[in-house]
Amino acid sequence: MSRRRCCGLIEVIPYSKRFVPDDQTTNTVSEICLEEIEAMRLKDIEGYDQQLCAEAMGVSRATFQRILQRARCKVASALVYGQTILIKGGNYMLKNRVFECSDCNHVWEVEPCVEGGKHGYEIPCPLCGSMKKSKISDEGVKHACGGGHHEGGGCCGGDDHK
Fold first, then answer.
1. Residue that terminates a domain, selected from 42, 70, 93
2. Residue 140 resides in a domain
3. Which among 118, 127, 41 is positioned nearest to 87, based on CA atoms?
4. Which residues form the domain of 126?
5. How many contiguous H segments (helices) and E segments (strands) does the chain have?
6. Is the separation of the CB atoms in 38 and 57 below 8 Å?
7. CB 124: neighbour CB atoms within 10 A?
8. pTM for this prediction
């Protein structure tokens, strides 16, 4: 009997969660879990090696490889067979956001941005109260906090530095 896999950590919630082919010929839906999308983002968009991807998600390299393989298989099948792609659920936890104050250089963590929660640009520095800050990624890259980036962008968890 296999043991239950630990939750994969994810940083970005995709803005769109449903993709439908233009001339859909089937009602089949390919469901892709959020940790599978995160695995493809880290490997295929960010270009990290598998060990770094696994560390970012808090899983073993072998587990990361299995998650990535499942994700790629589901996406390829949906594209080839004209299936709707639905992104939902999975076994994951959202990562905390890390900020650095531009005025006093204080670094602090804030829980993930969720529906009804505060966006990064709405959170003051807990030390000096300044609203000037940057979000710091796992790799140490700083992203300016602006506004209107809910659901995986900017201070709410995405990377708007591309």
1. 93
2. yes
3. 41
4. 96-156
5. 3, 9
6. yes
7. 14
8. 0.70
